[in-house]
Structures are given as structure tokens and as C-alpha cells.
Amino acid sequence: MALKQLRDGQLDAAFFLTGLGSPAISDALSNDRLELVPIQAIPHDAAAADASARRFTDGFRVRYPHVSPRVIPQLTYSGRPAEPLPSLGVQAVLVCQKNVDADVIERITHTLFEQRAVLSQREPTFTQLDESTARAGLQFPLHEGAENFYRRKEPGFMRTNAELFALSITGMLVLWSSLMWVRRWFVQSRKNRIDSYYQEVDDIIRRLQDGTDLAELDGLESELLKIRQRASDELVKEQLAADESYIIYQNMLNGCQAMLVRMREKIQASLREDT
Question: What predicted TM-score, i.e. pTM, was given to this entire model?
């Protein structure tokens, strides 16, 4: 209803509670008269969108402690917005009946976290899942099954084998140091991978801006498709992380695709005029 009223000019502005990449918002922005605007109490500074969102949210937390700062990334919706926009959001909560079997809820919770990379390909909101912060600020009691999942790593072994643990602590410290080195290497490897995709998409955007013909557009579209497929394959294989960097890459890719479509339409219209 609100979207229809916006399109009809009956509303000047409206607030929507939805996830990034929402089809409804994407559809609304296909209307050139509608646009996303930043929520802020100070003039907008694109270079400090996150800081602006945090400053604006502080006041809301006095009365609504569940509110948190959010930033709508650049190019989230087919090339829009043109720059990151400060906003605010709330934590999504999955609700169930108390009498649902604990094993069922534990399996559902486990699946959500273990398969978030796959789920995020269908719904980008799943990229925000983080087990370490999932219970922060929660205003509702956890189901027994969810509690079982979150408590699965509690150190019962150390309490029952304290003497063995004391003898092994030196070896564990060495192992921990090695794991940290491997982790840093793995994180850097993922970053290098996503950076290479940024460069490939940026190169196609630059070639589009330099002007081209239909044949070259077909070639660029084929390159873009291959980039998308490679990144999706690496995401499924956990060679890329489904994090904010990946969302930025997706936004760049979608924005590039939109530019390509507009360029094709422009060339085709020009050819029809010539004939």
C-alpha cells in the first residue's frame, strides 16, 4: 500500500522494515521518481556512512535498545544507491512454539549457521548471520533446542580432565599459534580472491564507459556471466566468505549488468533511427 501511494504521489516518504536486496524495494526503485535517502541528523558524508548511522542510532537506543546502526551499501539495487547510505535496523528473530521438539530446533539452528553460504545465494540477509552475536540484545527466551546448539562448545572436557589439560597446555599454545597463522593466511587468501573480482568487474565497467558496439557488448556480457559463475562456485566451496565484501561485489556486478542493459538498449535505439 505504501509503495503504491509513493508511486501515486500520495506520500512524500515511507519507512520499510526489510532485508538488503528486497525485491519490493528493487521494484520500487525501477521508478526513476523514487529514491533511497539516508536517515541521519547531520549532513550526509558518503565517506562516513557507518559513523553517521551510529551517531543517529544512539538516540533511538534510549527508548528502543534493540535498534542498531546499518548502512545500505552502494549499488545494492541495480546501480542504486550511488553511494553508501546510513540507516538503522533491528535484529530478525526466528520464533517457534515452546513445545516444539528440542532436537528439531537444534537441527534447524545448526542448519542456518552451517549452510548460510548457500542460503545467502537465495536471500542476501543470511550473510549477516553470526553465531558470536546472534544472542546479543535478544529480548526473548531461547528455546531449549537453540540453547543446546549454542552451548555445544562449553568446555566440559577441561573440567573432567584438568590434570591432562595442564600437561598439554604448552602443546596447545603452539597449536593455537599455528592455527592463528593459518587463519590469517586463509582470511588474506579470501580477501585477495574477492579483490580480483572487484578488479574484473571494474574493468568491464570501464570498457563499457569507453563506448562499444553490440558485438562487443555480447562479449562483455559473456565475461560478466563467467565472473558470476566463478564467484558462485567459490562461495559454495567456502573459498570466498559470504560477508560484506561479497555483498559489495554482488552490488558491483548487478550495477554493471544494469549498465550493460542500458547500453544495449541505447545502441539498438540508435540503429533503428539510422534505418
Answer: 0.42
